Amino acid sequence: MVRVGVTGGIGSGKTAFCNILKKHGAYVLNADDLAKKIMAEDPAVKEELVDTFGRDSYKKDGRLNREYLAEQAFQNDRVEELNNIVHPRIPLKTEEIMEKAEQAGYEVFVYEAALLLQNLRPNHLDYIILLLADKEKRIGRVQQRDKVNKELVVDRMEHQQDFSTLKHLADIVIENNGSLQELEEKAERIYYDILTG
User: Where does ATP bind (predicted)?
Assistant: First the structure.
C-alpha cells in the first residue's frame, strides 16, 4: 500500500483534492476529523480539555462544543494549547487506521493534514503532496465554504505556517489556482503515477 500525505494552507484545496483521490479508490483519512473524533471519544482528552478550556468545551448532552473551542483557540491565541492536548494521540491512531486500510485491500492511503510538515517530513509516508494557491483565491474559497467574513479567514491564515516555504519537503507541488476540473485532471494523473510508481 502506498502511503501519501497531502498538505497545504486553509483554502488551498486539500480536501477537494483528497475527495478526487477517494473517488479513484484511495482510503482518505482527514487529520481534523480524526482530532475531532479523539476529542469527542477519548476520556483522558475530554478531561484535559475541560481542565484547560473549561466546562463549555462540551455541550450539556456531552457532545464536543466545536464552536467554543475554535473561538478559544483562534481568537484567544491558544491554538498551541489545544494542539498539545490532541496531537500526541494522533500518530498511534493513524497507524491503527492505516493497518486496517491495508488489511482491507486499499492500494493507496491518503493522510490529509495541515500540520503534516510542521516538524519536517514524516518518515512513514512514501509521498508528500503540497497544495498551494494565491492568497485571494484561498480567502474566497474559505468565505464561500464557511460563510464567514474575510477578517476571520485572514486571522486563521495568519495562525498557519507559510506553506510556500515547504516546497523542498514535498515530492509533488500543485499550484491550485484554476478550476475544480483542472484539479481533477491533476489529481487523476498523480493518482495513477503513484499507483504505477
Answer: 11-16
